[in-house]
Amino acid sequence: MPKPPNGSARRPYELSFETRPEFLYARIAAPSINRALKLDYLAEVLLKCAQSRCKQILLERDIPAIIEDEEFEKTVEDVVRASEDVAIAFVNPHHDIEQKLKKFIALGKRRGGRFRYFSARDEAEKWLQKQARLN
Predict the structure, then answer these.
(1) Burial letters for 39-64: b for 16+ Cβ neighbours within 10 Å, e otherwise?
(2) Cβ-based neighbours of 109, under 8 Å, separated by 6 or more
(3) Taking the complete model, does pTM exceed 0.90, yes or no?
(4) Which CATH architecture is the domain 13-115+127-134 placed in?
(5) Domains of the chain by residue range
(6) What is the pLDDT of residue 70?
(7) What is the Cα–Cα distance from 83 to 42, expressed in whole angstroms?
(8) What tens-digit pLDDT sequence spans the chain (135 residues)?
(9) Given this model, what pLDDT does residue 9 score?
């Protein structure tokens, strides 16, 4: 597992990676989320993606919450800007936040992000493999 940013030994989430032939698999687990945490783990994921020279990420998001409404649109903008030229398949196992996460992803797509929502990892993997063949 990579070192946390700024050498911090304590971070409020667990992040793991696996490099696959067509994409980077990243799994984030946390009890809650805010804008700062989102940007922190996203920076780690995108750095790892750049290091492995990938253009696709399967992000399994084991967080049972979503960004607060007042931070929602600004966070979408940040994620779109940070992930330019990278396709991200978001996998969400938490049904309670499905609609709000789908809204986040749809807004990101409208603003130029290459995002897609999935409730199952195998479907996300198939989509990323198809994207790799198209590029």
Answers:
(1) ebbbebbbebbeeeebbbbbbbbebb
(2) 115, 116
(3) no
(4) 2-Layer Sandwich (3.30)
(5) 13-115+127-134
(6) 85
(7) 9
(8) 344 444 445 789 999 999 998 899 999 999 999 999 999 999 999 999 999 999 999 999 999 999 988 888 999 999 999 999 899 999 999 999 999 999 999 999 999 999 999 999 999 999 999 888 886
(9) 56
Structure tokens at 28: 């984030």
User: Is there a contact between 116 and 127 (Cβ–Cβ < 8 Å)?
Assistant: yes
DSSP states of the chain as a string? -PPPGGG-S--SSEEEEEE-SS-EEEEEE-S---HHHHHHHHHHHHHHHHHTT-SEEEEEEE-S----HHHHHHHHHHHHHHTTT-EEEEE---GGGHHHHHHHHHHHHHTT-EEEEESSHHHHHHHHHHHHHH-
pLDDT of 132 = 82
Q: In what order do the strands lie in the sheet with 14-19?
A: 14-19, 24-29, 56-62, 87-91, 114-118
